[in-house]
Amino acid sequence: MLWLSWAALFALAASWVVANPLMASPDEPAHVVKAASVVRGQWIGPDAEGGSEVEVPRFYRMVTAYPTCYMFQQDATGVCEIDVSAGPDIVEPAVTPAGRYNPIYYLLVGTPSLVSNSDGALYAMRLLSAALCTFLLALGFRAAAETPRPSWAVLGAAAALTPMVVFLSATVNPAALEIAAAFALWSQLLTLLRHPDPALIGSRMAWIAVAAVLLVNSRGLSLPYCAVLVVAVVLMSRWSALVEILRSRSAWPSFAVIVAGCVSALAWVVGTNSLGSGGATTRPDLTFGVAARLTIADSNAYLTNMIGQFGWMDTNLPPWLHMAFAACAGSVVLLALATGTWRERAVLVGVVGTTFLLPVAIHSSQAVYLGIIWQGRYILPVAVGILVLAGHILVDRMADAPCRVGAQLATVVGLALAGIQLVAFIENLHRYVNGEHGGWFSVTSESWLPPLPLALVIGGAVLSSAAYAVLIAWIARRQQPASGPVLPTGRSRADGQPFELAAR
């Protein structure tokens, strides 16, 4: 189950790896330089104007100029004729704004830079990132498949994977790891606590530890995001289930790993001051109140960015596609709100509110130092939880609905979501091949072409989108094997929440 899910999701993300010119994603040059320095033992460099100074092969300093050919120019193709050739032994200083970021992600994806100083190494770094992130996404889908009614859980999981999540997974950016790890943690914790199985506590907790450690060590804000996630899941679950997990000795090693990972993450943030603004006021006009009003006014732009805004925020999806995705995702949330208990509704609304209000608090408190810099993708680790929570609410609340209803709904919505992923891919590819307003069915001498034949890239995207739709439909129709007779769903008189009474 896990590996089949990973194969389908990796194929979906791998299509994006070659469909974008190198460095054509937010801050990718900074992260490539950081990765090339970390794997060479430079976990953090001295402060310099614009970030931290590190020593890397000349190639990795030169490729940071790639985006100047097409960033913020919607009608520019992905063609870039900057000469980045350099001898393999030439090492030069480079400045990266990501210099103080936690090194774990970069240790994992930076190894190709040790083998080659070429464009091939950059694509390999993207592929490694895609493999890691989609594996975490697959953990989330496997957790959905382990619920009593997988069709409802996978419906929420699929709706949580916006085209932006897939796009970021195919780039060199720790935000992709943060989002994927958060998705895995949301899904696995909800399955662990709302659908407990004593025989699976040890294995489930082991994968939860992996997701949690990678999450908190991905970016500076990951620790508070993780705290929001854990609080929301605990409030959605029975206390007795949590106590049972805490008492299980098979879970203790995983708890120790999680605590060590959180301590390590906190030590890095505090020790490097990676969340610090430098203390220099650059925008005194952006008081907290002014910045808060601007942030709230930009909520629609942040939502658009969360669904799909590619390149350097210069490649937009058509409004109808945003509306189609919103219809699919919104139907899941509305159905959960309509059927959930008051506590479940309160938690779900609380996570929605946190998704929109937390950026206001964070952004407004730092605007006088950093200016207006917030992007919607920064809050995606919390936002994906809205859909995952909604799916798990439906698992319990739609217990009386025929299984075929959930399976059919998940199949139809899954097919629509897979189609949205494919259209988003084609829109992005077209922007770089011929420009935003260029022709759709012609390739000229000025067109950009990916490193693989164009027909192969498009064909691969079609097949991977179809595989993604099949994955959703397969999980939706999957019947959970029972280890013994399952008694009817009961209701705890202590808190009014439903739970499964399974034979021990």
From TrEMBL:
Keywords, comma-separated and alphabetical: Membrane, Signal, Transmembrane, Transmembrane helix
Protein name: DUF2142 domain-containing protein
InterPro entries per record: DUF2142_membrane
Organism placement in taxonomy: Bacteria, Bacillati, Actinomycetota, Actinomycetes, Micrococcales
Region described as Disordered: 482-504
Keyword Transmembrane helix annotated: yes
Keyword Ribosomal protein recorded: no
Segments passing through the bilayer: 121-140, 152-170, 222-239, 251-270, 320-339, 346-372, 378-395, 407-426, 454-476
Annotated signal peptide: 1-19
